[in-house]
Amino acid sequence: MSASRHGSLIAGSVITGALVAVAVVSRLWTPGSPTRLAIADKLKAPLVHGLLGTDQLGRDVLSLLMVGAWNSLSIAVVAVALGAALGVALGLTAAARGGLVEALVMRAADVVFAVPPILSAMLLGAFLGTGPRTAVTAIATFMVPVFARLSVGAGRRVLARDFCLAARAAGKGQLAVTMQHVLPNIAPQIAVQVALQLGLAFLTEAGLSFLGFGLPPPAASWGRMLADAETYLGVAPWLAIAPGAAIALAVLGFNLIGDGLVDLLDPRER
Amino acid sequence: MTAPLLAVAGLTRDYPLPSPPWRRLVHRAVDGVSFEVAAGSIFGIVGESGAGKSTLVRLLMALDRPTAGTVRFAGEDLFGLAPHDLRALRRDFQMVFQDPFGSLDPRQRVGRIVAEPLSVTGVRLSRAARRDRVVEMLEDVGLGAEALDRYPHAFSGGQRQRIALARALITRPKLVIADEPVSALDLSVQAQVINLILDLSARHGVSFVVVSHDLEVIECVADRVGVMHRGRLVEEGETAALFAAPRHPYTRQLFAAAPRFAP
Which of A126, B43, B51, B161 has the greatest number of C-beta atoms within 10 Å? Predict the structure, then answer.
């Protein structure tokens, strides 16, 4: 394994670790209140009032960012967990059954894949109203086909190997072979995809909030902070820079982990 | 004569080929194969690649269904059994694969790999009894208890094939079907594994069906030999007799083509 791959795994872990730490700390403590309005202190520059200044309503930007990290992270993690669980289950069923089942799962995946998540979130929002459930459902929906496709291909390759035939010869049923042999052998590939998809989920969540389909106010959200900052870009650019940089860093962190894991877990590289 | 342990009769397996709609084309991989294996004996099946050996093995293991014919194991028709009964019967016939690098799950420890047939065939054992049985089997094939917690990649090809044999024998089966058990191994290791098969067969009274393309391997291990050619069993007989005086033209051709070391 090359040193740079190792480096990207470490850098990614540091960034993501910091993000998780900030999100957890925000549950216990923030420098200011992310919801208390203080109009007298509005649009203060960084270091003049708080570390990152205040927004148009006088709220502490750092506190908003910290709470936003928790909100975005919980939506992204729940959405990816749901999408991965459902996608892998569907994909492995398709790989094990083959034939019509596989064709149906793959075509359904194509259809879901064709609808952009922003669009499905808008549709879902019309039925469910905006909120975390809409965001999670919309993001999870487009995660499912990604994991389904990955596990069909990888699962079929594992099923074709002799140890799966050996397990069947020993009397194991299809479910047992899938759970005990196929799943552990494709777990590394799933782990890589989870890391990459977490970054994508983060970005999508920010996009949904930016458009107003994410968490409703007053819940802090990086995407909406960015949307609000647009109006004040001339007088208070830090309002856009802070959440923008946070989103970029978070996505970068997950992608670096994914890239690093690819080679770390590739048995051919060992 | 007592009933044979394994009785194969008229076994045929067709694979559909891409066909025009007005007629159905098939590839007949196994064509009317019949033979019997007596309890405690080793039956060798020899043939060149593409002769249908692997398809035959899959049918004997009931991993695939035949187009026609029957496989009777200890009097039971494998393809007439209910799934539950077949599962229970699998305790008595196990398999060893050709490729010792592909047939052991790289993500499981040896202890679990060897114990796998125990857990699925309804043999109820306590944790400690199971472990003892695994260790006993590992020692039986020339490995030790230290192998238990290691992964397959820590072992050489020959050692892995020993692990595969331990796994196949752990349910104390009556028959083990070995598909090219030594052809992926170095020549020096081949002899060790062949001797191990002979030794295990003699000590435990296990029958083996050994499938190989290698005439010398078959001559070493088998009591009786069947020669396969294009899906058919063209000749069958006592190993010594068949090797001394092959009758079928294909068998003679096969013998003539094999490289021989001068005695």
Answer: B161
d(CA A170, CA B121) in angstroms, rounded, equals 7
Cβ separation A163–B120 shorter than 8 A: no
Write down the ipTM of this complex. 0.86
Q: What is the pLDDT of residues A46-62, one digit of tens each?
A: 766 667 677 777 678 78
Helices assigned H by DSSP within chain A: 3-28, 61-97, 99-114, 117-128, 132-159, 162-169, 174-177, 183-211, 222-229, 238-265
Contact between residue B94 and residue B168 where contact means Cβ atoms under 8 Å apart: yes
**Chain A partners of B98 at a C-beta cutoff of 8 Å?**
162
**Rounded to a whole number, what is the distance in Å from the CA of A108 to chain B's nearest CA?**
27
User: Could you read off the pLDDT of A194-243 as tens digits, one per residue?
Assistant: 999 999 998 988 888 888 877 777 778 888 888 888 888 887 888 888 88
Contact A167 B108 (CB under 8 A): no
User: Virtual CA dihedral for A153, A155, A156, A162, nearest 10 degrees?
Assistant: 140
Comparing alpha-carbon positions, the chain A residue that sits nearest to B61 is: A169
The number of residues in chain A equals: 270
Surface of B (168-227) touching A: CB under 8 A? none
d(CA B30, CA B231) in angstroms, rounded, equals 4
Give the one of A161, A171, A181 whose C-beta lies nearest to B90's C-beta: A171
Token couple for A1: 């394994």
* Cis, peptide link before residue A218, omega less than 30° from 0: yes
Cross-chain Cβ contact A169/B108 below 8 Å: no
Rounded distance, CA B242 to CA B229, Å?
A: 16
pTM of the model: 0.84
Chain Cα centroid distance, residue B81: 21
**3-class SS shares of chain B: helix, strand, coil, % to 5:** 40, 25, 35
Q: B96 to chain A: nearest residue by CA?
A: A166
Cβ of B95 within 8 Å of Cβ of A169? The answer is yes
CA distance A156 to A259: 24
Residue A5 corresponds to which tokens in the numbers above?
């791959």
